[in-house]
């Protein structure tokens, strides 16, 4: 059932001609365990999968030399073409590959040693292989790959080719794109093969399709040109490949010891003990994330030495952190690749900005913010390479001085005043950068769950009367609560424990906050109240204040300032939780577990791998320079040095795997209820909720694709339970990668096809739709920082004010707001980083755009993928028509940025749309 073509008989229509038999070339006809010679005829014993009737008897041909009677021989010649992607270094230098020693390898025609492995064992139960050296052929300028060729002499009774073992004779690692044999067998590699000088073990690749030699003792070699998917469940792996499958996985798991080297390909777990730098300064010491005290997902183990100042902390390095070599594409990607661009921003642009803006604090006027887009920041001349890598940011390098000039964000371009308005403040909770925090109010009064002894009275100061006053005329408070018209952005209990600690840091402040919203009859949200809370501190009691949209000047400015505080909370939550934690961070354990436990020939590996591209690389870069102690996030976001601890709290208190699929996420926030009659099985509490409406279309498409795929490879439930690789994978995710939550009762079981569909759909959605919704709008929505300040640096003017402070506020409230906003250095650093984070790489791989070779090789899977692709293509038109529907006021209207973040496809650059398969930036 898994390989339906296997038992078909060979037909003459499917026969391939014999290719130049016994043109030996560079073939080596020996084997590590079972040698073959083209001149020795053997009877084919492999009839397991193809029972072709021989065209002619071969009983009398045993002693006939193959070279004399080629049609009666027992071996055939198969040519192989290997394609290698050039590294950036080799492409730029114009050399072929490698150095002088490698040139010798080329001359000798011994660049790589390839050893084909049969799916069948020989009569003694040993592995059958055929070897050949590959010789450099050419550089193909059209497709920018180097090609190598080799020739194998394959005995008739070799059986199906199931794998190839590769030895790299060069002194440098090489990136193998694919190996194609002219009998139809293809190995899709997309992987580094290290020099044999560095890694002794041969690299193993399994076929993604194969032809079957049906001849055996035939006088004519019968090849059946029938593609066969070689995604095998562990129990169905051909006997001869089982040990290779196990060896490959074992090498990927490593032994958990020692420091990882760049050529390693080992996936192992570690805690986040490398964010701090206690060796540099005690102020840069940070707690370990991961473990009982600060629960957190695991990251890839690098094994760097521990700090002499803190035995719990791993030392840091200025170099990129180790990631398994197959996750590192920096050598073969274009210079515009996101991680490289981000690296350029972090290591070149940020220091320049810091230097140029040194000594400046707040923006003196709003017009000075506009200058960032109109004139830019004058900086000293920069290296030409940086300017070419960052053409959107760095201008004018030919002159004596350069300019870092920002593109006008879409929100500002369409409506300069949108950031100021209340309805836009609310709309962005449904169609902005962080559309996954809003929740339904289900209980009243609003109460804190924190300890009142420490944090003060738990009752919210937002009373029924305040709400009634704000929504009066529409309905009563009780009606609004009963009819699910009240919603909330609740950052009270998460932030309040950090308020006193953050307030001890220089240049910042913090509150716990609640923002109450009312759903109007036109389907838009209207703000009702904002509550800011400070816990008891320094002998002062708890302070809390409720702000409402109001009709007097002082109240109106206080309302604007309260909104700035809430937006800084939402910005921090978005970056630390919705973006980093819920996509980048939680996915790393999925990637590690997949590589440790699912063989590259496992169908679920092949389903998930496209969703994992580049994620470990971008995560390693984030640990190096974004989320580290003193890094960009700590320096520019509201919780300061406590950012990552807060992230750990959110993981501990809020994150649940079973709530990460979009429908479950919506239901958990009260934004939807299950409804089997509704199009996606859920009914939304806010009908015009652009993120949910578009996201459900993508989620459903993913789920259907996953269902077709899973049900094909697992036609019976018992196959899921008995798949030891799959069970080990899921066990690793639950108990190691997310081990701090291993005892949670909500982890889904993995016993049936539906369980598996649910699990893989969740992972695929998180990597694609969820990440795109919270990532690619960052510059459009937060590039003009008054719309989403990352930090609110000053307390509210009415919190224990001095007479002088209050007078300052009354006299020039605009100054108070500008002082509250990020400083010039903070704002421009964030703008630079968001610009890169919002950008699509030229070689982005969008969801449903490209079929994987292994999927294409299997007709049923190919058809399912094409259906998936068709559904995604339809989304473009559906989203366009939604955005032009005037009735959908949360995505269509004067000056609004249309909601395009979940449109599947995009051009390069910052476009505010496009859903890549994976978290690549
Ligand atoms: Fe991201």
From TrEMBL:
Pfam entry (one): Lipoxygenase
GO terms of molecular function: linoleate 13S-lipoxygenase activity; metal ion binding; oxidoreductase activity, acting on single donors with incorporation of molecular oxygen, incorporation of two atoms of oxygen
Cofactor dependence: Fe cation
Domain of life: Eukaryota
InterPro entries tied to this protein: LipOase (IPR000907), LipOase_C (IPR013819), LipOase_C_sf (IPR036226), LipOase_CS (IPR020834), LipOase_Fe_BS (IPR020833), LipOase_plant (IPR001246), Lipoxygenase_dom_3 (IPR027433), PLAT/LH2_dom (IPR001024)
Subcellular location: Plastid, Chloroplast
Pathway involvement of the protein, from the record: Lipid metabolism; oxylipin biosynthesis
One example of a Gene Ontology biological process annotation: fatty acid biosynthetic process
The keyword Mitochondrion appears for this protein: no
PLAT domain sequence ranges: 89-207
Keywords, sorted A to Z: Chloroplast, Dioxygenase, Fatty acid biosynthesis, Fatty acid metabolism, Iron, Lipid biosynthesis, Lipid metabolism, Metal-binding, Oxidoreductase, Oxylipin biosynthesis, Plastid, Transit peptide
Described function: Plant lipoxygenase may be involved in a number of diverse aspects of plant physiology including growth and development, pest resistance, and senescence or responses to wounding.
Protein name, entry field: Lipoxygenase
Organism listed in the record: Helianthus annuus (Common sunflower)
Lineage of source species: Eukaryota, Viridiplantae, Streptophyta, Embryophyta, Tracheophyta
Gene: LOX2
């Amino acid at each position: 059932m898994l390989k339906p073509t296997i038992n078909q008989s060979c037909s003459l229509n499917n026969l391939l001609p014999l290719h130049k038999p016994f043109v030996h070339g560079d073939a080596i006809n020996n084997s590590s365990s079972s040698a073959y010679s083209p001149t020795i005829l053997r009877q084919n014993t492999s009839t397991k999968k193809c029972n072709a009737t021989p065209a002619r008897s071969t009983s009398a041909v045993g002693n006939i030399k193959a070279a004399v009677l080629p049609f009666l021989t027992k071996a055939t010649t198969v040519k192989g073409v290997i394609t290698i992607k050039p590294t950036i270094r080799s492409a730029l230098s114009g050399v072929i590959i490698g150095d002088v020693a490698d040139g010798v390898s080329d001359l000798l025609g011994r660049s790589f040693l390839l050893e084909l492995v049969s799916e069948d064992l020989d009569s003694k139960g040993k592995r059958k292989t055929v070897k050949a050296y590959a010789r450099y052929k050419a550089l193909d300028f059209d497709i920018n790959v180097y090609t190598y060729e080799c020739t194998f002499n394959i005995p008739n009774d070799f059986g199906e080719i199931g794998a190839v073992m590769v030895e790299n004779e060069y002194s440098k690692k090489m990136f193998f794109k694919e190996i194609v044999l002219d009998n139809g067998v293809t190995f899709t590699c997309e992987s580094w093969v290290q020099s044999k000088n560095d890694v002794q073990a041969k690299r193993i690749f399994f076929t993604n399709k194969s032809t079957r030699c049906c001849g055996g003792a035939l006088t004519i070699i019968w090849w059946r040109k029938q593609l066969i998917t070689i995604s095998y469940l562990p129990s169905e792996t051909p006997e001869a490949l089982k040990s290779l499958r196990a060896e490959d996985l074992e090498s990927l798991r490593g032994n958990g010891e020692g420091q990882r080297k760049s050529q390693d390909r080992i996936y192992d777990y570690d805690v986040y003990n490398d964010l701090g730098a206690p060796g540099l300064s005690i102020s840069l010491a940070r707690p370990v994330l991961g473990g009982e005290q600060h629960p957190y997902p695991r990251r890839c183990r690098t094994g760097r030495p521990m700090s002499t100042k803190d035995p719990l902390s791993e030392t840091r390095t200025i170099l990129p952190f180790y990631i398994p070599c197959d996750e590192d594409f920096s050598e073969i990607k274009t210079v515009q690749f996101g991680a490289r661009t981000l690296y350029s921003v972090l290591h070149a642009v940020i220091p320049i900005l810091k230097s140029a803006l040194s000594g400046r604090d707040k923006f003196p006027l709003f017009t000075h913010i506009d200058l960032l887009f109109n004139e830019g920041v004058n900086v000293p001349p920069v290296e030409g390479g940086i300017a070419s890598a960052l053409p959107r940011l760095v201008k004018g390098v030919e002159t004596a001085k350069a300019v870092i000039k920002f593109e006008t964000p879409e929100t500002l371009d369409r409506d300069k005043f949108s950031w100021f308005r209340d309805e836009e403040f609310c709309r962005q909770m449904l169609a902005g950068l962080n559309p996954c925090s809003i929740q339904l109010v289900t209980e009243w009064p609003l109460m804190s769950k924190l300890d009142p002894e420490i944090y003060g009275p738990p009752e919210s100061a937002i009373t029924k009367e305040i709400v009634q006053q704000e929504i009066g005329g529409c309905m009563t408070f009780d009606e609004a609560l009963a009819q699910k018209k009240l919603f909330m952005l609740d950052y009270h209990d998460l932030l309040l424990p950090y308020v006193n600690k953050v307030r001890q840091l220089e240049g910042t402040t913090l509150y716990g906050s609640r923002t109450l919203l009312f759903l109007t009859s036109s389907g838009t949200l209207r703000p009702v109240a904002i509550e800011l809370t400070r816990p008891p501190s320094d002998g002062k009691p708890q302070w809390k204040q409720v702000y409402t949209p109001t009709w007097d000047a002082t109240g109106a400015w206080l309302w604007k300032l309260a909104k700035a505080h809430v937006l800084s909370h939402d910005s921090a939550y978005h970056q630390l939780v919705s973006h980093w934690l819920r996509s980048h961070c939680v996915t790393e354990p999925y990637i590690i577990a997949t590589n440790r436990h699912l063989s590259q020939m496992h169908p679920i590996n092949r389903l998930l791998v496209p969703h994992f591209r580049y994620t470990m690389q971008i995560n390693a870069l984030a640990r190096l320079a974004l989320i580290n102690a003193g890094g960009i996030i700590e320096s520019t976001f509201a919780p300061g040095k406590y950012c990552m601890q807060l992230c750990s709290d959110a993981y501990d208190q809020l994150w649940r795997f079973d709530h990460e699929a979009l429908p479950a996420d919506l239901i958990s926030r009260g934004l939807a209820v299950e409804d089997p009659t509704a199009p996606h099985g859920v009914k939304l509490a806010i009908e015009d909720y652009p993120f949910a409406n578009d996201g459900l279309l993508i989620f459903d498409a993913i789920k259907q694709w996953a269902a077709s795929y899973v049900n094909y490879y697992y036609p019976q439930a018992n196959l899921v339970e008995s798949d030891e690789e799959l069970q080990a994978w899921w066990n690793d995710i639950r108990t190691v990668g997310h081990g701090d939550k291993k005892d949670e009762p909500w982890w889904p079981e993995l016993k049936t096809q539906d369980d598996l569909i649910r699990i893989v759909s969740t992972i695929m959605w998180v990597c694609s739709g969820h990440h795109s919704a919270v990532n690619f709008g960052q510059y459009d929505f937060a590039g003009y920082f008054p719309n989403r300040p990352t930090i609110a640096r000053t307390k509210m003017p009415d919190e224990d004010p001095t007479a002088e402070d209050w007078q300052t506020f009354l006299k020039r409230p605009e100054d108070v707001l500008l002082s509250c906003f990020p400083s010039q250095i903070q704002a421009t650093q964030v703008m630079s980083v968001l610009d890169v984070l919002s950008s699509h790489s030229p070689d982005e791989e969008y969801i449903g755009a490209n079929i994987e070779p292994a999927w294409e090789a299997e007709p049923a899977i190919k058809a399912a993928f094409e259906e998936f692709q068709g559904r995604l293509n339809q989304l473009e038109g559906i989203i366009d028509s939604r955005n032009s529907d005037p009735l959908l006021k949360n995505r269509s209207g004067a000056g609004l940025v249309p909601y395009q973040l979940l449109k599947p496809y995009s051009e390069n650059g910052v476009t505010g749309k496009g859903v890549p398969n994976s978290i690549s930036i």
